[in-house]
Amino acid sequence: MAPGEEALAIQKIRICKAKYWHYMDMKRWDDLRSVFTHDAIADFRGERDLKPGDTIDKLAPIEDAIAVGDPAAFKGRDLIIDNLYAGLLQDWMTFHLGGEPIIEINGPDSATGMWPLFDYISNRGRTLKGYGHYFERYRLEEGAWRIAYIALTRIKTDGEHPADFTF
Fold first, then answer.
1. Nearest Cα to 87, choosing from 74, 100, 97, 96?
2. Pairwise CA distance, residues 32 & 23, whole Å
3. Predicted confidence (pLDDT) per residue in 40-54, tens digit
4. DSSP secondary structure string, 86-149?
5. Which residue has the higher pLDDT, 113 or 162?
6. For the chain, how far is it from start to end, CA to CA, in angstroms?
7. Would you tell me how many other CB atoms lie within 10 Å of the CB of residue 37?
């Protein structure tokens, strides 16, 4: 990939992530589908299973979690949106703020990224301020860069998570 093409790909990935946060916070579920590949994987076991500061490599392989039906691991854009986002976050107030990412283009249609994160989430009288990182893989699908894999880890939390970690 030529340098100008790489810079353009990185900018398009940044826009994809900005849309992700905006669509999630605004509860625009159909628009949120557009930022994921059709076979995307979402791994939110870190919210439940990792202590602040733990790295994602402490988790069992995501394929194993999906195979046993772990409710914090999803494969497929529709399952991710319908169960995780629209299902869990519909009644929550959320605000996400991402920092400067590290994005690496791995080929003409694949990339990885790490995004620093601050989020504020509130529901049922519980509020959480979270500080952490998103780890993602991207793929060029149907002419657009989309999220193919998304995982979240935390380095610090203030408050109580509204989920009770029951998902």
1. 74
2. 5
3. 999 999 988 998 888
4. HHHHTT-EEEEEE---EEEEEETTEEEEEEEEEEEEEETTEEEEEEEEEEEEEEEETTEEEEEE
5. 113
6. 41
7. 20
User: Backbone dihedral region of 35: left (phi > 0), alpha (psi from -120 to 50 degrees) or beta?
Assistant: alpha
The pLDDT value given to residue 63: 95
Instruction: Write the pLDDT tens digit of every residue in 58-111.
Output: 999 999 999 999 989 999 999 999 988 888 888 899 999 999 999 999 999 999
Q: CA 58, 64, 69: angle at the middle one, nearest 5?
A: 115
Joined together, the tokens standing for residue 47 give 């919210």
pLDDT above 70 (res 164): no
The DSSP letter of residue 41 is E
Question: What would you measure as the largest C-alpha separation in the chain, in angstroms?
Answer: 51
Q: Give the single-character DSSP code of 78.
A: H
